[in-house]
Amino acid sequence: MSLPIRGRSATLARLLVFALALEAFSAPYQYQADPSPRPGASNSSSSKPALQRMLENPRPLGAVMPSSLFAQVAVGGGFSTVFTFLNTGGSTLTGTLILTAADGSPMRVNLASGNPGSDAVRTGASNLAIGSSLPITIPPGGTEFIVASTVNPGDPARTGWARVESYGGSLGSVATFQQIDAQGMLSNSAGVTSADAVQAATIPVDDDRSRNRYTGYAIANPGTESISIKGALFDGDLNVPVNNFALALGPGQQLAKFFFESTAVPEKFKGSVVLTEQGGKKFSVVALVQNWGLYTTIPVIPTLPAAKSSLALTNGTLVDGTGAGPLRNAVILINDDRIDGVGTLDKVKIPPNARIIDVRGATILPGFLNTHVHSAFSESNLQAWAQAGVTTVRDMGFQAEHMWWPMSFRDQHMQSPRFARIVTVGVPISTPGGYPLENGNTTVLTAASPEEARAGTNLILDHGADLIKVSLESGLIIKGIPDLPIFNKEESTAIVDVAHRRGVPVSVHVTAVMDLAKAVDYGFDQIAHMVADELEDEQLTARMVARDIYWIPTLELWSFYNLAPVAVANLRRFVSAGGMVALGTDFSGAPKPFQLGMPMREMELMQEAGMTPLQIIVAATRNAAHVCNLDRTLGSLERGKVADVLVVNGDPLQDIHVLANVRLVVRSGTIIRDTGN
Predict the structure, then answer these.
(1) What is the C-alpha to C-alpha distance for residues 122 and 115, in angstroms, rounded to an integer?
(2) Which fold has domain 426-633?
(3) Taking the domains of the chain in order of start, what are their residue ranges?
(4) Which pLDDT band, with edges at 50, 70 and 90, does 383 fall under?
(5) Measuring CA to CA, how many Å separate 476 from each of 6, 435, 472, 507, 512?
(6) With contact defined as beta carbons under 8 Å apart, do 425 and 466 qualify?
């Protein structure tokens, strides 16, 4: 099978995941030298086992992703890796195990199930799959063991990373540990998940080395700059420092140790350790206790650094993005990057050290999202959007030599509030010879069967895409004749099934009613582009509304081709029927002068379609966050959500144009624009 490639959060989960790398199943056990040592490793380490050196010198991970576990993996040359999943929660936990080689490519392995130490594992009798990913479903209280081993006996050793992504359950903050003794035997394993990034955290410590009980921790640097972490160990009274230590992690690196390895912990000690990043940056940390070889996760308590940033916007009119009416004399309190309070002054307690900005009656809104753009991978474009209050953009495809470059660019720029954050499809998936290949865009992945469609979808998601974009373009609107090949139902449902199992939505490019009907039949979640021929089928519209299919109209696009009147009329029908709309313009999707920044032209056309200013604002905030799969963290001004805030002078509920009168913009809790007016 070939897949043609054209061109180049959360609290500590009640889940224990630990990875134990086992020796080869045949005796005697031999650990081979790593054929490609990590650059910079000293010659003195060259005689150590490959896996031990990999654990001692962790490779950069890139940006740590929410709800994901990263752990080292070794297969071949005497190695297999066993993953143990224990669901201690009260609901079914689902996720996907994804394996990536050290060079970033999918790591193809043999995956089997069984119990560590049993014949089933040692013989690989219960084979599950051969590939680089595997769905996982664990019932409440259930345990599952998965073994990754080489596909062909005798293959040389390969190392890489495992990532576990959750969808529908909580697969968050869990550490894994591993040590290798002088004889090369393994007792535990090291790795880290991406707990919510914090600037400081407290970990309870309960060590008694005489009884083989140790407290361990794993830390990851999710950012693009090096971080320095200070650790202060306190006794049980929390006021007597016992010892201090310091840790340094480069961009994307992880570190896992027991506390007695970091500092002079007494043989028997009960207390806590406080970890603080010294430069105001953030880190992810998780912890566990090993007691006679058994592992138990322990809570990591986020703590507030002494210099925590608090900001209060007062005396404003709140339009919170949920669709609720305006709240006069409103206050919004921001602590670090999160909203900590919303309401009237008598309901929100402002800390004495908070910075207070009186917005003098201006309107306070969530940061806007433009859910259909191209050319997002430009710092100047991202800054222009952010300065206008569009704090998130969703890139729906690009033209470049390197197919997987967008995810790297996104991760490198995610931490800086100067830029609008990026949500990306990575690359669209289409049929051979279909759109947009026919239109000259070569950065597309193609699939010609349901099997290739599944593999292609997994490949795009394995490389870190936030959602899937599919083309269902027969050519009626763009060519005048429907002669382009498109996916059939089996291929489409294969894509949707994989994406939904991995917790991401599927957006489908459609421009004609004939293709829209297929998109609805095939189970897609959202429609990219309003159809540009007359939508007179009321039953089709009703089915879309009943299935909660969101529509991103991109009316600005159609205005360049004299198709706006019919598109506007179709949007009016859809909204009148109760349809859900998210704002998107198709910026740079055609060689036309699209509006960069606040998309006023798009909103004017939405208003022509009968949408009220409040409906338009909801389309640009709550609904837009929903189609980006970010509605749990963005899209409305509610306590606990990320503090993306737009303040404008005037009342946009009376005149949508005042959205261009920016008073202040906050991105992730940081003021990036303040006109002071």
Answers:
(1) 9
(2) TIM Barrel (3.20.20)
(3) 15-302, 426-633
(4) very high
(5) 24, 12, 11, 20, 7
(6) yes
